[in-house]
HNH endonuclease signature motif containing protein (Patulibacter brassicae), 365 residues
Amino acid sequence: MTGEPLAIGEQVLALLDDAATSSTYKPALLVAMLDRAPEHLEDGRMPVRELAERVVELYWPQSRAYATTGRVLVQNQSGGQATILRDLAAFRQEAGVDAITIPDGVRRSRSWEQLVRQAERTLAEWPIPRLQRPFEPFLYTVPWPFRRQGGFTMRAYRESGAAIELFPGVADAFVRLAPLLRPFVVRWWSEKAAALNRAEVPDASSLLSFEDFLFGRDRVALGRVAEGLLDLQHGRCFYCATGVGTTDREVDHFIPWSRSGDDGLDNLVVACRRCNNAKRAFLAGPRHLEPFLERNRGYAGDLESLARERSWPKDRPRTEATVRSAYLIGADLRTLWECGGSPDKARLQPYRTAADALRSLLAPA
């Protein structure tokens, strides 16, 4: 299998097209790999533990009761619930946690550690060895023993290194293609989950709100950190620097969510509605990247305090890896967005005109 990004992307789409609707583990695993790829560009080795943590994060909002039925959605066609989702729902009930985002205190608990370990085992035993079927392996190799009819043991898995080995070029392809592949896989996941829950999603018009529920796309939830972030911005829009009121403020993913799925506090800024709507899924130009990097360095302690206070996820190393890969990997023909000093003066510019400035800002210290 060639390591060319386009060829890898086409094969992933063919893989999804061939996949059955028996469960949603395949898209969950693919999204987790896309989101973790920026951290493994050099070594090409992806620990299953990291994938398990990300899969649990992805399923977390889906483990809440769905509003119209008061029950957790089914994501397995066999008649039972998907194991990871079942364990998450039980964890929520026992801990009495209904939050859309995962509280920081929950992440530090022993029960959470056990939950992630069980998810790791589930991934290692079932979806990871089966994801690439019916094709020949083209994304990664599975180094632990596995047979079609069983044979998995935790001891053999641990002795193998507990990580999948990516084929050359796969991590790079995932980083380059994430803005296209990730929204596609998320929509595919939503459609398959809808097919498993026909009563909750009777027609296509319900799919967008259903997708928002599945992936925790709740502006009210993001609003929990808006005030604290706005304090660090002295009450002004991060992009145009105009004053922002409570009715005009929106929380923006600096590196667009479609590129990384990074909801961490280090990737969030507050913008006025006009700037947020204008920026959309574009990468911001160096005029905005520089103060963003300075904010994360200069207010590191404040961001840590805000994350604890609001029980909001924060993973600065992951955000930094995502920022570097988003700007430094990919075609130079990408378009960047910059606000010209006021919301009505936004402009787009070719990446190549700002490439030197971006590389300078992101050069290793």
